[in-house]
Specification:
about 475 residues, alpha/beta, 3-stranded antiparallel sheet, globular, single chain
C-alpha cells in the first residue's frame, strides 16, 4: 500500500500561508503550556495573544453583550424562561420566542441560505443603514465572513490566469484563499504616508502590470475599515473605485466586517459600498461581507456572518445557492448571533440601557487604547505608526538595522519575523510580522491588536523590548 504523504495531496494546499495563525501563534501556544510547568524559566508570567482580533479570548476578556448571550441561552434551552422566569428581560423572552417560532430547534438544519426571517432582518438593517432597499433573496448567511470570502474567490477563479486585486498590506485570508483555489493575487499598494489611503492610480498600475503578464483581473478586494491598517475610505474615493470597477468589469468584494469599529465617527464615518453603488445606480457586481466576530459583538467562536450580492443575475445567484447547499446550512448559533447584531435592543425596551452601556464602554476603551498605543509607539526610536481611525489594530513600521537584517538572514527568518520572535521570547507578547500581510520591499512592520487591557503594562513591555533590541542591533 502506498503511504499517505504530502506529495500525494493537492499541491495547491502547500502554497497556503496564513500568518495570523502561523509560526508565532504556534510558538505562543507552546510557551503558554510551558508557563504551567514549575520553574519554567521564562522571563514573563503570561502570553498575550495580540496576533488576532479575538476580543473574548482569555487574557483579553472583552465581556460579551448580555442581550446576545441571553437570547442565545433561551434558544439553546427554551425551558430556561420557565425555570428562571425573573432572570430574563421581557424583550429577550419575546425575541427568543419569535425566533423559536421561525427556527424551531437550533439542532435542526435551516434553509441553506440561512433562516429566511433572519435574512429579512439583515435586509432591514442594510436598508436602514444605507437608505436604499435590500432584498433578503440576495443575502446569504455564513459561518463567519471568511466562509463567504473563500466561496466567492473560488467562484471567480475561472482559469489558471484569473487574478484578484488585493491591497498591500492585506488580511492573509485573501492570499490564502487565492492559493487554495489556484488564483493569482494582483497586489496594489496602500499609501502609508497618507494614512494608508487607497489610490485608484495604484490599482490601475497593478492592472496594467497584470495585463502585461497575461493575468485576467476578475475582482477587486477593498477592506474598509482596513485590516491591518484601520484606514477608512471617504465617499469620494469609494465613488472612484466603483467607476474603476465599471471601467475594467471587476466584481467588487467589499470586506466591511469592522464597520462598527470606529474610533472617530464624527471625522471618520463609515459608508458602505452598497450605499455608493445604489446611490450612483452603478451596474457593477458587488459582494458586501459582514460578521459577528468584530464590532462590539466579538462573538468569534459562534461563526456568524453574511454577504449580500448586488447586481447579480438570477442564474449566478442560483449557482451560489447550489454551492452553499453543499454545506447544508450555516451554524444556527451564528445565525442567531447575526440577528442580535442587526436587531439590537431599541430605546424603551428593557434591555436597551444595559446594551447601550456595554457597547459604549467597548467603543470608548478601544478608541482610547488605540490612541494611547499609537502615541507611545511613535515616541520610540525607529518606529512610525499611523493612528488608526477604525478596526482593532495598529500596524507600526519598524526600522531594522543592517546588523539586525543579517542576524535575521542567519536565522533563516524575515527581518520583521526575527524581531517579532525576539519580542515573543522576551515579553510573551505575540504579534504578526508585516511580511505576513505584505509590505513594500525594504520596509518592515508588525500588526498588534488594541484589545489588550492594561495598556501601561502592555505597551511598557513593547517599549522596553524595542529599546533593548535597538541597543543590541542599532538603527543603521
Amino acid at each position: 500500500m502506498r503511504p499517505l504523504t504530502i506529495d500525494t495531496l493537492n499541491p495547491a494546499l502547500q502554497k497556503v500561508q496564513y500568518a495570523v495563525r502561523g509560526e508565532l501563534a504556534i510558538k505562543a501556544e507552546l510557551l503558554r503550556d510551558k508557563l504551567k510547568e514549575p520553574n519554567h524559566g521564562l522571563p514573563f508570567d503570561k502570553v498575550i495573544s495580540s496576533n488576532i482580533g479575538n476580543p473574548q479570548q482569555k487574557g483579553l476578556d472583552q465581556p460579551p453583550i448580555t442581550f446576545t448571550r441571553q437570547v442565545a441561552a433561551l434558544m439553546e434551552w427554551p425551558d430556561l424562561a420557565n425555570l428562571a422566569p425573573n432572570a430574563f428581560p421581557k424583550d429577550v423572552i419575546e425575541r427568543a420566542k419569535e425566533l423559536s417560532e421561525e427556527i424551531g430547534s437550533v439542532g435542526a438544519y435551516s434553509h441553506s441560505q440561512g433562516v429566511p426571517f433572519i435574512r429579512q432582518s439583515v435586509a432591514n438593517f442594510i436598508a436602514e443603514r444605507d437608505g436604499h432597499p435590500s432584498d433578503p433573496a440576495n443575502i446569504f448567511l455564513t459561518g463567519g465572513a471568511s466562509a463567504g470570502v473563500s466561496l466567492l474567490i473560488n467562484m471567480l477563479i475561472s482559469s489558471p490566469k484569473s487574478g484578484i486585486l488585493i491591497p498591500i498590506p492585506q488580511y492573509p485570508l485573501y492570499t490564502a484563499s487565492l492559493a487554495q483555489h489556484q488564483g493569482i493575487p494582483i497586489p496594489y499598494q496602500l499609501d502609508e504616508s497618507s494614512g494608508w489611503s487607497t489610490s485608484v492610480a495604484s490599482i490601475e498600475e497593478a492592472l496594467e502590470k497584470a495585463h502585461k503578464e497575461g493575468v485576467i483581473a476578475k475582482g477587486l478586494v477593498i477592506i474598509n475599515p482596513g485590516n491591518p491598517t484601520g484606514a477608512l475610505l471617504d465617499e469620494a474615493t469609494q465613488e472612484k473605485l466603483v467607476e474603476l470597477c465599471e471601467k475594467y468589469s471587476l466584481v467588487l468584494l467589499a470586506d466591511e466586517v469592522y464597520q462598527n469599529n470606529l474610533h472617530h465617527p464624527q471625522t471618520h464615518p463609515f459608508t458602505s459600498f452598497k450605499k455608493v453603488v445604489a446611490k450612483s445606480q452603478s451596474p457593477i457586481p458587488l459582494v458586501s461581507f459582514h460578521s459577528i466576530s468584530k464590532g462590539v459583538s466579538g462573538e468569534c467562536g459562534r461563526r456568524g456572518g453574511y454577504f449580500e450580492c448586488t447586481n447579480f443575475s438570477e442564474d449566478v445567484l442560483a449557482l451560489i445557492y447550489k454551492m452553499v447547499s453543499v454545506g447544508l446550512c450555516p451554524p444556527l448559533a451564528g445565525q442567531i448571533g447575526v440577528d442580535s447584531m442587526v436587531r439590537p435592543p431599541k430605546p424603551g425596551q428593557e434591555s436597551y440601557e444595559l446594551w447601550k452601556k456595554e457597547t459604549d464602554t467597548i467603543h470608548s476603551a478601544l478608541a482610547s487604547r488605540t490612541q494611547a498605543m499609537a502615541a507611545r509607539l511613535n515616541a520610540l526610536p525607529g518606529v512610525t505608526c499611523v493612528d488608526s481611525p477604525g478596526a482593532l489594530y495598529l500596524f507600526p513600521q519598524i526600522k531594522l538595522s543592517q546588523k539586525a537584517q543579517e542576524a535575521a538572514k542567519t536565522a533563516g527568518k524575515e527581518p520583521d519575523a526575527f524581531y517579532s520572535l525576539a519580542l515573543l521570547d522576551e515579553t510573551g507578547i505575540c504579534v504578526v510580522p508585516g511580511s505576513g500581510f505584505g509590505q513594500k520591499e525594504g520596509e518592515w512592520h508588525y500588526r498588534l491588536t488594541c484589545l489588550c487591557p492594561g495598556v501601561d503594562e502592555y505597551v511598557g513591555k513593547l517599549e522596553k523590548f524595542h529599546r533593548s533590541f535597538v541597543e543590541m542591533y542599532g538603527l543603521e
